[in-house]
Amino acid sequence: MARLQTIYREKIVPQLKAELGLKNPMEVPKITKITVNMGVGEAVADRKLMDSAVADLTKITGQKPLICKSKKAIASFKLREGLAIGCKVTLRGARMYEFLDRLISVAMPRIRDFRGVSPRAFDGRGNYTLGVKEQIIFPEIQYDAIDQVRGMDITITTTARDNAQGRALLTAFNFPFRK
To answer: Which among 2, 24, 38, 43 could disulfide-bond with 152, CB atoms 3.0 to 4.6 Å apart, if both were Cys?
Structure first.
């Protein structure tokens, strides 16, 4: 069991139950999955870029990504139907908690000029989306070995009913929200 998972069960559940005024511990919001998405639009011209993006995402998450292909052809972007344009990974269970732990405690402090993440990036149902501009904030990526700096979207999906419950859950995990 991951370190953050035991902290959730032992400390966060009773804390949120009291804070949110819930009667049943099963009502306490929890994180169901984390989706990491990396768009590689330049891969239309050079297919080797997609291979390096897949390798980076594999190192970061510890899981092989799914390659996303274009659904429609768009002539102005020189895009044909079925071309690889991105990759994504869905993390659940122990791997999800391990990734969240590394994101909060190791990767986010390595972001340049970091003052916290926006507390307004919730979608209305308690899910949080975070954009990262560089993949080099993760310690698994060697700075000398990368060919290009790429960004990624990290979506944390929760069982919270609204943004207040989602914010309370992520705050309990010591998520660094901007004041």
So the answer is: 38
